[in-house]
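# nightly structure sweep
# worker-07 picked up a monomer target from the shared queue
# config: single-sequence mode, recycle default, output format = structure tokens
# input follows
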Amino acid sequence: MRLLFFVALLFNFQALAAESRFVPHWTASCHLPSHKLEILFRSTSGDPTNDDMSVTVTWDGTKSSTLHVKPALFVPMGSISDAKIPCGSVNAFQFQSGNILLLLTRDDRPSEDRLTAILLNGRTGETMDVLYDLGAHSGVLRVIRDGTGFRVLLNRRWLMNQNAGEFAAVDWMLIKEHTGRISHDWENARK
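# output follows
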């Protein structure tokens, strides 16, 4: 009987941990060498599970603009990286041009989380480009600086193994900036 109680308690804690992702309003602060960004995520209905969050960026405490991304349930996500800008629970990276790459995680329940890439002008904070669906990832995001761009580890496709079942085949996605636009390609496609 005690074992049943502890198993039920364990599942209850796991459910509570999952609920913490569903926050109707949250903010991330980014500290660039010469600028400060505030990124506000807000559910218009007050219920983030409606997938209706908008994203607003405030640049240096003065200029605010709503990013042109489809509403979604955006969730905080950390990363392991050699190039990350201190940005709290949002992943931000700076290209050599000074422009900013935001990688926002959106909950695609019941599937894996998906990544949205946004390119911001590093001087004005204006949106230059948006890729709404860069791909799926599992767990903590992994990002590595690669020359003039970045490599992000994503789930490229799903494979089936008779003994192990279904699993994700991962690959590195190379992300670069080209004339104010985001370019991307799978690393294995380049070989």
